[in-house]
Amino acid sequence: MRDDLDSAGEYFDDGSLFVPIDPLSINPDYLTDFALFERNETKDGKYRFRCLLKDSSSIPKQRLIGLLRAWDTVYIHKNQSQNYTEYVKNNLEFILKHDEIDNRKKTETLIQLSTEVVKEAFQINFASGRECQNMVENIQHLISQAIDYISSIASLGGVADLAGHDYETHTHSIKVGWLTATFINCNQDLFPVSTKQTVKEFMIQATVAGFLHDIGKVKIPKNVINKPGKLNNLEYVIIQAHTAYSTSLLFETRLPRSFMQMILYHHENEDGSGYPRGLRRDHIPVLAKVCHIIDVFDALTSRRPYKPAKTPFEALRIMAGENPYLETLQKFEAEARENKRVPVTAIVRDDYEAKLKRLREREMLEEEAQKRVEARMRLRDKGMSHCFDKDLLKRFILTINRSDNFDLSGLL
Ligand SMILES: [Fe+2]
Hints:
There is one protein chain. The chain is mainly α. It folds into 3 domains: 1-83, no CATH class; 91-322 and 383-401, Hypothetical protein af1432; 329-377, no CATH class. The protein has 17 helices and 5 strands. A 3-stranded antiparallel beta sheet has the order 1-4-3, with no helix packed on it. The longest helix is centred in the last third of the chain and has 29 residues, at 352-380. Bound molecules: fe (ii) ion. Residues 213-214, 242, 266-267, 295 line the site of fe (ii) ion.
């Protein structure tokens, strides 16, 4: 126990100094370095926190197992919450495999730890190769403990619960990794891996790539990333650079080539209208196609400042739907990609009238460009089947449909 905790092990407090934890999250085989407290109400409306266990080395294992089952909620002192977080990180596999801990709690723990490592990843100094490698290893360590859980259909309820929330890069990245793991697990025939161990290793690496697929966004200006409205054409071109940035930032890590390609090509469309290279069909690696489907699915089912979230059913109907305005949409998309400037035809003269005219023309051009962006977004939502591999999209729908938490009846 830390010196700043009362050695008598008793506190009177309004509750703000203690946090509740689930006693089942304590692994009897792994020593704790934090104290556990029970909470009782006192007459003056405060609480008395009494130390139940200073650390788990002071008690026989069988006795500890009995107590952990008997206790309901226990508390830890806030000064030791970092010790507890580290403990959970090192015992994540134990928690996720525990039969008596419910899935909601498992998901909460997993999301909390994953968010922490992904947030850290977005803040490291990429100029340091060592720091970058450490970051990837941290994520690998976390995912390797969680892979059996996140690749199981039973865990999909956790992803389903997150649908409809605000779009947020960290959560989005975690969901993409999670759904990628589940997809690979349910569609192993698609991937060239054989033994159980290599399948597991493959799923871990793919999940790491899913967690980091948008890491290149750290290089995109904040006012473009966080823009509350729709992006104009120039901003759209700038944001497209994130796939190359992601690959470049991870270049010196030991992430295998196929997972680097998954990241680089996760915005390629089946018909060649995607980026960065405009690859078509068989030229797009399968992992990148899967990542693309999951990426769009999650983006559509998340809420944006300028549009509400779609339900999983609506999102998949759009993704699988043929677009009746495909030609017009492609024209707008090509325009956005090339970021062409429509020439100003006014004769430039150095007088007031001409200046006014030029200003008005520029305004009109900007208004027109913005209208086209909006039209492109509207048209895109009429059907996106040209963006995806039909077989893979069907497999994705079948995969998540295996969970009761996604109501997709009538879609297939
Ligand atoms: Fe992306």
